[in-house]
UniProtKB/TrEMBL annotation:
InterPro entries: Glyco_trans_2-like, Nucleotide-diphossugar_trans. Residues 24-164 form the Glycosyltransferase 2-like domain. It comes from Adhaeribacter terreus. This is Glycosyltransferase family 2 protein. It holds the Pfam family Glycos_transf_2.
Amino acid sequence: MAYIPKSPPRIAPLPANCVRPTWSVMIPVYNCAQFLPETLESVLQQNIPEAEMQIEVIDDFSTDVDVEALVKQIGKGRIAYFRQPKNVGSLVNFETCIIRAKGKYVHLLHGDDKVRNGYYRKIETLFVQHPEAGAAFCRYACIDENGRKNYDKTPEMQHDGILPNWLKTISERQRLQYASITVRREVYEKLGGFFGVTYGEDWEMWVRIARHYPVAYTPEILAEYRTHSNSISGNKFLKGGHLKDLAQAMKLIQQHLPEGQKTGILARSKKYYAYYGLKIANRLWNRLHNEQVVKAQIKYILYLHQSPLLRLVLLKLYLKLNLYKLWKRAYR
């Protein structure tokens, strides 16, 4: 079982004599070889010199292909490679990424996501224009496994700049993806790494940063976040673990909020993610027709939020389950 830190892992500052580029693009991967070439090419196509940008793949002991050979083939010496001695899990792999990052700005770009041309120059411009910002991010597009666009994320505001009231906004629900955001390494040094849960750990991190720093933003779509057709079929989703993790992330987020806002934000978060869980439950039912899987979702949905409307919608889902059972009995 992967290790989950109980508190933010410490990120030590780099030695004073360390040669540092502006950028560290750190690419955590685990069994995503079918998408990794697109990810690497999207970074290489930015044509940023090695003196300005570190690019490194951090492999969490993948078993699908020889990732090192793939990196060498595509990178031709431009992309560094590090392999964990065993599968350590996502949080430790992210920690390794940050520790190995030498740049001023750290971009954790997952091995199935992509950046569009201009991402790094635009984000760097935001940091230069807003030196007080601890992080900067862009609007993103959501794509499927074939690279087709599902949707464009709703903009947070219509112009570049520091986001107003961002702590309150990001605390209510997750609004960005790893691919879209870059963090100053010194921020990780001050606040530590990812911890606590393996679904929603980034949400807590973005809230933690917002508590201590302004955050810069551009509405330009310069990153692409990929969803997989099997992304909701993993063990955590089948057992409702994603909702359990989100509930824990909400508790962790509470410590970053002013006293007068905690109760209201928690209630809105629970309601939002209860309906999110309902959407996942319907998707799982349509895909698997497994009653136990759906009931696992419902257990956590009701833990998060209860209202007459939600109970009515859940009743409709139960009716769908029972009608299917009757149909199966009739046509055996």
